[in-house]
């Protein structure tokens, strides 16, 4: 397939057929030159006995120059080169095929295949980038062993890396040199990688649990070497955790991480040679926030864990993408929880759980409600790059987590052990993973398959009844998909198996022991109900007084719970629930209810007033020293404007912004003394430490500063923020102070923020990742009618530091404005949508993958108010008329359909 969108083909899971040929070994030779790299590809090919016979071998290829072909070392002329690849005609049953071709890495702005960044060579082959390097059966169920020889100018490219183990290296007579790498494990082509350039490495040697020596390397450009320690520590922690939790050891002699500034994704798990966006490798206290440190640890863990869940066992086809991604997201979530102290500290684990669910509900639930809604295992696609989605990753992780909820940690480990025992070295399916879990635990999981096949977010309606005379409490659960999107409704097949965790809280705030009808004795205070029917009633006995239900504890399934709690009941749960997740959830429900009511009044032009109960509830949480600072920060953070707008029948971002700012100001004013005390109490003097405990103190302190910046008289906030900015010894505090100054500037029109912005840029202009923060802070600032943020964004696009071709820079400014500043992006005049259309089309010509991500910002356009809806439609139609790539066309056509 070419990059043009003229005739997009729909690829369907039902049409899967095994490949007609298999490739057992691949010997690649690269002569690396930026403008014309020569690639010689020698493969051992044989017919697949499990596939239909065909006389010709069809290989995929894109943007390649054909040089020559040979079969069994003899030139072969029966070759046809075409737009989507190459056809080798009338081939024997088993043969050695050598193809020589050329590509132009210097001109490859798509960052897919082989490309040049900052003068160095890098690759990105997932999902279909390998076909931009050489002709191949570029599909995940074709697995081979690879030997790779790299040749390049030694002065320009002193470091030559590829997958596996280095088996030879040396100088060549023309100022060039070579390195030869061998990967002993079979892998699909999407896991191939090479790197060549002027790089240096932080190295460390470790012993695995079985006593084997391993070399670990983090490769970066020389000026970034001082920012690699945290990534190395994260890699070591990942290796140790995977050994302890799942018995999985590092299987190669060395493991390498390489950082590159031009990268479409966060990172890529290429076997033994993980290539990372610099954003997820580089960190020191001056340049990286607490969030950056945590994200680096999580992403390093994620890519390392892929070594087994994705590499050693891979996907049969791209419809099975969640087999590796959902499973590995679950694994990195469990790892991050453990690193935060969650294995010993339930509160720390709950905090991590809350962070993950916030992302899921804000982003994946919205995806489920739109035109791109699809099952965890999609049934069709036009462009596979568009299906690296929140559904595949985050909902996929929840589907995996539910196995652990059903079977416990030991049962889940048994399922994992059986999975690797059966499928190591193979390309398999989601059904194979489900079968391993079922067989290891002696359970029938046929119904569970629907979690992979049905799109949309399930809704569980809960009704309860207490029989005081009989001391019986009945809970009736009913499941459906509510008003699901048309894309989701098409996939509905029947009720799901939903593990629904529940507790009952007595009038004194204590959990009640739980005994279900038919049981001989009570068993714990949280029970996981296996909810399998459209409607099902569960009855608890020996319930001494009418309880308050604590529903879906620890968010035991990715569903929306509908239960009519009163405000007093939510306040009671917020104060008393032993389940930290549900305690947070109660506060979010309380705040959401109040905010949506205020947004309705704001839309109608009516006066606004905050319920005193919300202020009191938030005040109690703020001053509850039994709660960790990190939990309080999350509990006191209002639901986002994007999430709130999605809860409205017709999304009205302006009304939501007015309501949310009104509540923030009311909370800031009413609790001013408490915020000031909190700010002072949670300072972290001394040297910076990126520990979860210290990060929690900084998070709560900076939330206090944020609320103080909302006051009509923000003098205290300006004073505190200015002092914090000037004295900061870490990026977390410096960025938070700058954000607070931008807030006060929007309200007062003062220029204190402008001075800080200028100082920030001067301090960090040689640190690209920090300048990304500088762009993002300005793109997401509040703005005003007199100072609309879009004017700032357009001006910043002309700044010498802005480069549209760099995905990080585009995301920091354009994506931040379009996705993270809803009130300004959804301006009534449609200026944000016009800007969006311009940028999507410009990016489409440079990098279709990045353009497609931006294009998704308007996919929910039908859910907005009529005035905004029509302006969005016009912007979508403009993009549809000018789009060149199938990546973007699939998005806008589904949105407009």
From TrEMBL:
Domain of life: Bacteria
Domain Peptidase M1 alanyl aminopeptidase C-terminal: 567-897
First-tier enzyme category under EC: hydrolase
CDD domains listed in its UniProt record: M1_APN (cd09600)
Residue intervals of the Aminopeptidase N-like N-terminal domain: 96-191
Cofactor requirement: Zn(2+)
Chain ranges of the Peptidase M1 alanyl aminopeptidase Ig-like fold domain: 456-564
E.C. numbers: 3.4.11.2
GO molecular function, one term: zinc ion binding
Reaction catalyzed: Release of an N-terminal amino acid, Xaa-|-Yaa- from a peptide, amide or arylamide. Xaa is preferably Ala, but may be most amino acids including Pro (slow action). When a terminal hydrophobic residue is followed by a prolyl residue, the two may be released as an intact Xaa-Pro dipeptide
Pfam family, one: Peptidase_M1_N
Membrane-spanning ranges: none
Domain Peptidase M1 membrane alanine aminopeptidase: 231-448
PANTHER family attached to this UniProt entry: PUROMYCIN-SENSITIVE AMINOPEPTIDASE (PTHR46322)
Annotated function: Aminopeptidase N is involved in the degradation of intracellular peptides generated by protein breakdown during normal growth as well as in response to nutrient starvation.
Family, as annotated: Belongs to the peptidase M1 family.
Record protein name field: Aminopeptidase N
């Amino acid at each position: 397939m070419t990059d043009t969108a003229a005739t997009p083909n729909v690829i369907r899971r039902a049409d899967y057929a095994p490949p007609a040929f298999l490739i057992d070994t691949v010997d690649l030779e690269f002569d690396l030159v930026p403008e014309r790299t020569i690639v010689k590809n020698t493969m051992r090919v044989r017919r697949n006995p499990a596939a239909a016979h065909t006389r010709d071998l069809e290989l995929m290829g894109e943007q390649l120059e054909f040089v020559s072909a040979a079969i069994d070392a003899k030139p072969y002329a029966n070759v046809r080169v075409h737009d989507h690849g190459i056809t080798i005609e009338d081939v024997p049953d088993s043969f050695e095929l050598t193809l020589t071709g050329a590509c132009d890495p210097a001109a490859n702005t798509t960052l897919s295949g082989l490309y040049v960044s900052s003068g160095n060579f890098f690759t990105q082959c997932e999902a279909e980038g390998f076909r931009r390097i050489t002709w191949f059966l570029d599909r995940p169920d074709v697995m081979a062993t690879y030997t790779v020889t790299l040749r390049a100018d030694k002065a320009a490219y002193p470091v030559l890396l590829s997958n596996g183990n280095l088996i030879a290296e040396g100088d060549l007579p023309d100022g060039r040199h070579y390195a030869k790498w061998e990967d002993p494990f079979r892998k699909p082509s999407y896991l191939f990688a090479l790197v060549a350039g002027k790089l240096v490495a932080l190295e460390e040697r470790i012993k695995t649990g079985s006593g084997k020596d391993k070399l670990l390397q983090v490769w970066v450009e020389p000026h970034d070497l001082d920012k690699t320690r945290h990534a190395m520590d994260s890699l070591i922690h990942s290796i140790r955790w995977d050994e302890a939790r799942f018995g999985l050891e590092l299987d190669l002699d060395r493991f390498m991480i390489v950082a590159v500034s031009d990268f479409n994704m966060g990172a890529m798990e290429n076997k033994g040679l993980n290539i990372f966006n610099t954003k997820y490798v580089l960190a020191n206290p001056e340049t990286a926030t607490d969030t950056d440190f945590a994200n680096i640890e999580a992403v390093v863990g994620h890519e390392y864990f892929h070594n087994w869940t994705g590499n050693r066992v891979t996907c049969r086809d791209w419809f099975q993408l969640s087999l590796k991604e959902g499973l590995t997201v679950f694994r990195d979530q469990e790892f991050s929880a453990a690193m935060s102290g969650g294995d010993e500290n339930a509160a720390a684990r709950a905090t991590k759980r809350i962070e993950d669910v916030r992302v899921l509900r804000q982003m994946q639930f919205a995806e489920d409600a739109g035109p791109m809604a699809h099952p965890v295992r999609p049934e069709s696609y036009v462009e596979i790059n568009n299906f690296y989605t929140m559904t595949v990753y985050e909902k996929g992780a929840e589907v995996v987590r539910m196995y652990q909820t059903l079977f416990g940690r030991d049962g889940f480990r048994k399922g994992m052990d059986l999975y690797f025992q059966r499928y190591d070295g193979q390309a398999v399916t989601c059904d194979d993973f489900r079968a391993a879990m079922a067989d290891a635990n002696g359970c029938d999981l046929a119904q569970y398959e629907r979690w992979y096949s049905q799109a949309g977010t399930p809704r569980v309606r809960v009704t309860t009844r207490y029989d005081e005379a009989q001391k019986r409490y009945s809970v009736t659960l009913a499941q459906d998909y509510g008003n699901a999107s048309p894309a989701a409704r098409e996939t509905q097949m029947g009720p799901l198996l939903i593990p629904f965790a529940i507790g009952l809280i007595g009038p004194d705030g204590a959990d009640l022991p739980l005994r279900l009808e038919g049981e001989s004795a009570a068993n714990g205070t949280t029970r996981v109900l296996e909810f399998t029917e459209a409607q099902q009633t569960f009855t608890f006995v020996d319930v001494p007084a009418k309880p308050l239900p604590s529903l879906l504890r620890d968010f035991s399934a990715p569903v929306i719970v509908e239960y009519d709690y009163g405000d007093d009941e939510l306040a009671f749960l917020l104060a008393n629930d032993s389940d930290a997740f549900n305690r947070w959830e109660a506060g979010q429900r309380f705040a959401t209810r109040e905010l949506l009511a205020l947004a309705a009044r704001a839309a109608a032009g009516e006066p606004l007033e905050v319920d005193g109960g919300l202020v009191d509830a938030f005040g109690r949480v703020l001053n509850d020293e039994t709660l960790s600072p990190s939990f309080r920060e999350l509990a006191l953070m209002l639901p986002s404007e994007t999430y709130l707008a999605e809860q409205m029948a017709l999304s009205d971002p302006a009304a939501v912004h007015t309501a949310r700012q009104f509540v923030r100001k009311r909370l800031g004013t009413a609790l001013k003394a408490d915020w000031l005390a909190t700010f002072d109490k949670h300072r972290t003097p001394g040297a910076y430490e990126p520990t979860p405990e210290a990060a929690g103190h900084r998070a709560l302190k900076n939330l206090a500063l944020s609320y103080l910046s909302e006051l009509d008289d923000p003098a205290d906030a300006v004073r505190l923020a200015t002092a914090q900015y000037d004295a900061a010894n870490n990026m977390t505090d410096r960025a938070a102070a700058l954000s607070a100054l931008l807030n006060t500037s929007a309200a007062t029109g003062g220029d204190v923020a402008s001075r800080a912005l200028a100082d920030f840029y001067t301090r960090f202009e040689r640190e690209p990742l920090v300048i990304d923060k500088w762009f993002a802070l300005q793109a997401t600032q509040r703005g005003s009618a007199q100072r609309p943020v879009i004017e700032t964004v357009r001006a910043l696009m002309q700044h010498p530091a802005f480069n549209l071709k760099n995905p990080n820079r585009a995301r920091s400014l354009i994506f931040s404005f379009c996705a993270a500043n809803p009130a300004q992006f959804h301006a009534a005049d449609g200026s944000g949508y016009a800007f969006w259309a311009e940028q999507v089309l410009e990016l489409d010509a440079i990098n279709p993958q990045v353009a497609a991500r931006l294009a998704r910002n308007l996919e929910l356009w039908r859910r907005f108010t009529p005035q905004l809806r029509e302006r969005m439609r016009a912007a979508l139609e403009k993009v549809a008329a000018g789009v060149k790539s199938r990546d973007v066309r699939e998005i806008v056509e589904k949105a407009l359909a």
